[in-house]
Structures are given as C-alpha cells and as structure tokens.
Amino acid sequence: MLDRSIAPEIQPLFSIHLLEPQIETLENGISLYKFPNNDLDLIHLQLNIRSGAMYEKKKHLSLLTYGLLKGSHPRYQATEMADLLDFYGSTFGVDVYLDSVCIKIVIPKRNIPNILPTIYEMISAPKFREDYLNLIRQQRIQSLRNNLKKNSFVATRLLLQAMIGDQSAAGQLASEESYQAVNINDLERYHRETFCAENVSLFATGSLDKETISIIQKTFGAIGHGQEADEIPIFKMPASQAPIINQEVPGSVQSSLCIAMPSLNYAEESHSPFKVLSTISGGYFGSRLMQRIREKLGYTYGIGNGSVYFGRQSIFSIQSDVDATHTQEAIDACFDELERLQREPVPEEELQTVKTYMTGSLIQEMSTSVAYMSKYAFLMTQHVDHHTLQEMLNMIQKTTFEDIMVAAKKYFSYNNFVQIIVGKKL
Prior knowledge:
- The chain has a six-stranded mixed sheet, sandwiched between helices. The chain has a five-stranded mixed sheet with strand order 7-11-8-10-9, sandwiched between helices.
- Strand 1 and strand 2 form a beta hairpin.
- The longest helix has 18 residues, at 130-147.
- The chain starts with 21 loop residues before the first strand and ends with a strand.
- Helices cover 42% and strands 19% of the residues.
- The chain has helices spanning 61-67, 78-87, 112-124, 130-147, 151-163, 176-180, 184-194, 210-220, 271-282, 288-296, 327-343, 348-364, 369-381, 387-398, 401-411; strands at 22-25, 31-36, 42-49, 91-96, 101-108, 200-206, 244-248, 254-263, 300-310, 313-323, 418-423.
- By secondary structure, the protein is of the alpha+beta class.
- The chain contains 15 helices and eleven strands.
C-alpha cells in the first residue's frame, strides 16, 4: 500500500518540450505567432508595441496614450464600450512597461466576428477626448499624492532617478505638473508614431480554426505603416554619483530600503548563474535575506530582490520596509549576507532546494498556452528566443557552489550598489 506520509523522491528535470509557435506574416509585415490550443474556446490575443517610458520624449505619453484607449473609441464613450465588452463576454487590458506596451484581448471564439472589429477601431483610430483625459489625469494626480505619502513608493521612484536620471523620461520624477503638461495633441502624435506595423508583434492562442485566423489576419493586417522605433540606448548606470541617497520622513516608524545596481540582460552568458545567485540571496521565501532580516533579526515582515529588464540592460534591487530604529543594522545585515555568498560555499542541500524551486517556477510559467505565449512574447522583447528557456534550465541544473561564489564576487561588491533609504535619517 502507498504510504502517503512519505514524500516521493524528487527527480531533477533536465529537459522540457517546447512547442514551436506557428509563425506567419500578415499583409502589412506584422508577424503573427500562433499557439493553437483546441481545448481553449477563449481566444487570447496579445499585441506587443515597441513603446513605454524608455521611448518617450515627454513623461507619461505611453501611460496616457494607451491607458486612455478604452475610453477613446471613435463611436462609443467609455461606459458604452465597457458595456459592449461585457455583453460579448470579452476583456480588454493594457500593461505599460519600461520598454513595451502590451495590449491583451480575450474574446469567446463565437464572438470574434462581432466584437474584434470594434476593438480594432478603438486601438487603431482612437478619438482622444478632453473630458476623459482630464478625468484620468486627475485620478493619476490623486494617486500620486497618496503614493507620495508611502516611503516604499518614494524609494522606488528615487531608484529610477538614481539609475537612469535624465537619460530617459523613465528616470524623471512624476509630478502634478508633468501630468498637466500632456495634452490631446501629444497623445494623437504619440499614437501615430508608435502604433504602426513596424512596431507591433501579434500573438494568439486558443482554438484557432481557419475562420478565426482569417478574421485576425484581416483585422490586424490593416495596421498602417510608419517609422520603426529606434532601439533603446545603453544607459550609463547609475546616473547619480551619490552612493547613498537618504531622504528623511519625520515620524516614520519604518524605513523603506532600496539597494540597487546595474545588472545583466537575458543574452549574457552569466545570466543563468546570476539568476541562481539572486534566488538564493532574496528570490524566494526561504532565501538568505528572509532568513536573516525577517526570521532571525525581526526587522521586517518581508524582504526580497529581483531584476527589472529593459532593452539590453537591467536593474537588480533588494527592497524592504524595515523597523526605522534598526535601519542601519538592516542595511549592514543585507550586505553581510551578500558578502557571505562571496566567501562561503552554498551547502548542497540549499543549492538543490533553490534549483528545484527555480525549475518549478520555470515550468509553471509555461504550464498553459496562455502563459507560454506571454513568456515567449517577453523573451522577444529581451532579444532572445524560447530556446533560452531550455538553456536556462540546463544552466540551473549545472550551476555549482563555485559558480555561485564567482558570480557573487563579480556582482555583489559593496561598491556596485546605490543605497536608497526613505524614512530615518542616518
């Protein structure tokens, strides 16, 4: 009889079978990546647009141009469009990142002919309205006012300013004045410049029969031509020469910490060992930083690290809200953990736990056709293809404690980091 009190032996996963998407080119040159799934009656469409804060010449253009689409249909008001989407069981969403804008559309297959042409009108020929811009702008300004009272928000915006600075709109601090400076002409111009066949990639998954594909081809094959956006330049990071940025907030019971450095992109050879290193340091609940700062010292409820990617660069950061009376002690403990990874081999049991966690997370990111499609689209923005996932899996399994120590010595040097502290004055 099977004893369910005994966990089954863990078997390392060394290979994954990745289905190649079906790729075709629309009449206007847009690449359509198809991920057929006959069991999925909901058709998921994703448009990746080469836009985002890193491409802007003026603050907020991506956020407002594409964020206002749902209320900018040439024939329907925002509430009418919302009712129409709801009637056809469909959803429309926009995510604005540093280096891309992602439009996500979900439609029941049977309703594709009824609603997709209407959605296309909205995204391809929007009518930006002054009243709707004013409404969204005031919401954004109120949200900014509220967020500026949060130390963690202030620390994150100081991070982008310190790392990017005036090299891009992404490094400029948002303000009420920067929101007020955006007008309808700006939105119309930015839409014309960025929404063109040269800047769009299209992805689709679901039960993609001949009729459905034909409608998708006809709809998005009508996107007009324009000027292809330049690649994001390589920024000098950090832009600030100050290794420590300390902003006092009188009366704070917590300090928000953001310890950051310029980091690697997906295409770099040492990216995978660094991912293992960063997971060990603060990339999961059992990480070194969680064990030290939360469990042992009790300075925080949570701490973690991660990387944000854009163009051919990334920023690695450790972030936490800590007890203000122990701000310096928490910072010292963070650097002590990073330094310990440089001089002490990671025990085999801990390394195997991290490998298992990372492998599981990687598989989970591809567990459905929708998830795999999104991951594939993300990798394209990082100038790599889906075969990188197999390479990453191989590297995770092959990474040794010696690799971890080499990466830690190379990247986790104290002088590589900018420290941002919002709360207690040190």
